[in-house]
Amino acid sequence: MPRYLSWRSIVSAGLFVFSWALAAGAQPHLVTDLNQGRVAANLQPLPSAGIEQDGVLYFPGQDPQHGYELWRSDGTAEGTYRLADLCPGSCWGGGQGIGVFNGFLYFLGNDREHGVEIWRTDGTVGGEELLGDLCPGECGIGLSGWVERDGALWFLTQGFGETPILWTSDGSPAGTRQVANLCTDLGICGFVDYSYAFLAGPDPSGQGFVLWTSTDALSLYRTDGTAAGTELLHRFTASFLSPQDSKNGGKGSLESLKAALGPTARTAVEATEPLFFLEGFDLWTSDGTPAGTRLVRNVEGLIGTSSYLQSTRVIDGIWYAIFDYGDWLRSDGTAEGTFPLAHVDSQFRPTLARIGDAVYVVTVHGVWRAGATPETTVRFDGPVGDVLAVIERPGRLYVMGWNQAGFVWSTDGTPAGTRRHHLDGPPNPDQYEIGGFGDGVMVSVGYRELWRIDQRGAERVRDFQPSNGGSGPVDQISFGRRLLFISNLGERGAKLFSTDGTAAGTAAISPYFGSQAYRLTRAGDRAFFTTFGRVWTSDGTAAGTRSFRPAYSSSSHELISPIGVVGDRFVFGANFKQYPLRCEPGDTEPWVSDGTQRGTKQILNLNPFVQPGGGSQCETVAVSSSPGPGVSLGSFALFAADDLLHGRELFATDGTKEGTRRVADLNPKLMPNTITDPTSPPHAPDLVGVGSNPSDLVRAGSRAFFVADDGTTGRELWVTNGTRRGTRRVADLVPGPGSSTPRNLVAVGDGIYFFAADGAGEGLYKSDGTQAGTVRVSDLAGVSQARELTVARGSLFFVAFRPSTGTELWVSRGTAASTREVTDLRPGPRGSLPQNLKAVGARVVFAAEDGTSGLEPWSSDGTAEGTLRWGDIAPGSAASSPGPFSVASGQILFGADDGEHGRELWAIPVANLVD
């Protein structure tokens, strides 16, 4: 057996590893609370994406331990709390409301196992349920229409570049089924990446649904879900598109039609109203049948020079529309009943709304009330400011606006009944959100606070940003027997710290710098990271920590990723130069640093070409070679970069311009040059390289493995020693142009393990760098989404999903028989979603959610009985979201949030884990 595959030989080689088992009573502890003040963070609740049911608003919200999830509020502080943690940790779990049906609330959510899908909840904590994996796997759905009819739900889903699917459901997972593929079943074809469809609701004829599609042409259909019951109502001509529509693929027309059709879920009463839509300046109406779809009149003489709609709505059978330049038009579906009502302020989203039977337009300078004629249409003053949103509540309109600061005002449709509600907030319109609730509204202010506003006044419901905001850590690396980490200390910025895992042994070793820092990396006996316009280097002490601005640096930069280490020098991709007009050579290129200002410089400009500046202030913009990521290989570093002439290929550098070379042009194919500016030197050729796009570089012994596409055999496994002759494809696991797409490469000795798909499904593979030595270890039958492959002494740990147990921890010792799920930490189909795997001797430490204690730290030796949780840092179902994990000074160190101190550095002594 090759050396890299022999576990016995690894042990006999004298690798310094440990085998741990969790000692009774071992608990993690807070190292120190570095920041006891607030840290500014975007924790904005989104009431506009919420739905109200039985006096409770269900909406997306987030706190420091969790990403966006489903929350609820009854308008009180005690009645405002999180209902679900679909995506454990700070990832996006969703919570956007869709509708209410048979007592359940339906919302869009993402549990990291199924992608974005439809969920339902009974309104209790943990009462959520997946409606169905409508797009199997992680792909998720795009929802474009949600309608209730005849005691059933109907909705339309579409993945990127896929044909939309019509579904129906009784509201339960078992009662959810596919009705029709719009192309194969209904004959509505031609969908490509930029095409879409919208299910508007029951049509006025009561025979089916209104369906707006954009394929080869913009079209309006009626369908009952069968081919025989699908009829074309109108096909638009391409010439009708306004300039705005032409630029966005007709989305302006889509929004106009959606607004004209009314709310997403049209009720049986609304379904009796006619449809209105524009084709250029031609106004059309439809009763939902081909015969009843007719031209009303051309409105060009009634409005200005643009037919682009700002706001449109059908109310009690009358179509109201506000056009681009403020012309307010109404139509009853007849030529003589189509006329302008008034000219209103057209800036900042004039919005149509209703109070009872009256129709209004809310504008930047006041409110208009529609009459039956222009003469009876009146205006009265309201608070001056940009209109951000208008919410209709019983008997009143609530308007969120902005004028140097945010405000909320309401009106009952009369000057006397118009009032402003007190609201203190930041001077930034992006920091406000509003949604309807009860007889008033819910408002989020300043990225963090949720307020209830109604005629009784304004009351703060919850501050989503705790008073003790935590410090991070933002980034961390093991550095000898200590841990170096960056922590954010609030308004004054961040600092670099060093710790031995104790409060007394934790100290800042740098002055304050901006809160955004990029990737701590060790190079020899120094550590490097970058902030805006500066390079920082440290030997782990305060005296040996310094920063400097590279020559010609501006105040901004972009660090793509570390490339590698060559000796004691750090090679990385960065953009430190910025010129105001030509904007070159301020692109991302390879740099090198020895820790001094003089020794920090751009190695060379691999891609010297420029492209048109577009809408920027630059005449031309430098094209970046975007180097990295990379890997160190002896006296040089390997990395992927795009020199344009050959496309993105494999390069090597010793840190000097003369020592930087392209290793190989693996994909020699060419394509038309649509990137550069042909009028500006240096002039690129008409044909440029496609590139093999090397990725996943990992060192194994004296070679590096990577994944690339040579243009003939698809994305497959390659190996190199840094020379052209020593670079070759290892194996073509999917013969021909298909790709096995190897991923998650990890080195064991001189070889690697990885995941790949060989046509028969995804499997775990091993390779010694030869075709004969590249074999499948396990076919992982019934398993998908394998990731985080981690080597811990004699075991391979990874995370994988299967329908019966969800995403759980798996282990393998390099054979099919030994590849298995460790244990079902969260019994049932909802997985524990292990994450942040880190090898510590023969064990692996990770974060997981067992369904009871939230996302907390765990460790495993590969057996069910040896898989144990390290206490409950955030008590109860709250998540401490621990990780990443590092080992230093006999401590396992990681960031976690206990809900009291914010996210800070925690530790568990290795001494608490005994052999």
Q: Could you characterize the architecture of this molecule?
A:
- The chain is globular.
- The longest helix has 10 residues, at 251-260.
- It has three helices and 77 strands.
- Among the domains are: 1-39 and 780-915, no CATH class; 44-141.
- The strands form 21 sheets. A four-stranded antiparallel beta sheet has the order 2-76-75-74, with no helix packed on it. The chain has a four-stranded antiparallel beta sheet with strand order 3-4-5-6, with no helix packed on it. It has a four-stranded antiparallel beta sheet with strand order 7-8-9-10, with no helix packed on it.
- Strand 39 (482-488) and strand 40 (494-499) form a beta hairpin.
- With 915 residues, the chain is mainly beta.
- The two termini are 29 Å apart.
Q: What key phrases describe this protein's structure?
A:
915 residues, mainly beta, 4-stranded antiparallel sheet, 3 helices, 77 strands
Largest sheet: 4 strands, antiparallel
What is the typical, i.e. mean, pLDDT?
87
Question: Structural class of the helix and strand makeup?
Answer: mainly beta
Radius of gyration, taken over Cα atoms and rounded to an integer in Å: 31 Å
How are the strands ordered across the major sheet? 2-76-75-74
Q: Tell me what portion of residues adopts beta-strand conformation.
A: over 45%
Helical stretch count? 3
What is the molecular shape?
globular
Percentage of residues in helical conformation:
under 10%
Q: Topology of this structure?
A:
Layout lengths: L6 H6 L8 E2 L6 E4 L18 E3 L2 E8 L2 E8 L7 E2 L11 E8 L2 E7 L5 E6 L6 E3 L12 E7 L2 E6 L7 E5 L6 E6 L14 E7 L6 E6 L3 E6 L7 E5 L7 H5 L3 H10 L14 E5 L2 E5 L7 E5 L10 E7 L2 E6 L3 E5 L6 E6 L7 E5 L2 E6 L2 E4 L8 E3 L5 E8 L2 E7 L3 E6 L7 E3 L10 E6 L2 E6 L3 E6 L2 E7 L11 E5 L2 E7 L5 E6 L7 E2 L9 E6 L2 E6 L2 E5 L7 E3 L9 E9 L2 E7 L13 E5 L7 E2 L7 E3 L7 E3 L7 E4 L2 E7 L5 E6 L7 E4 L5 E3 L14 E3 L5 E6 L2 E7 L5 E6 L7 E4 L11 E6 L2 E7 L4 E6 L7 E4 L5 E9 L2 E8 L3 E7 L7 E2 L13 E6 L2 E7 L5 E6 L7 E2 L15 E4 L2 E7 L5 E7 L3 E2 L1
Antiparallel strand pairs: 1-77, 2-76, 3-4, 4-5, 5-6, 7-8, 8-9, 9-10, 11-12, 12-13, 13-14, 15-16, 16-17, 17-18, 19-20, 20-21, 22-23, 23-24, 24-25, 26-27, 27-28, 28-29, 30-31, 31-32, 32-33, 34-35, 35-36, 36-37, 38-39, 39-40, 40-41, 42-43, 43-44, 44-45, 46-47, 47-48, 48-49, 50-51, 52-53, 53-54, ...
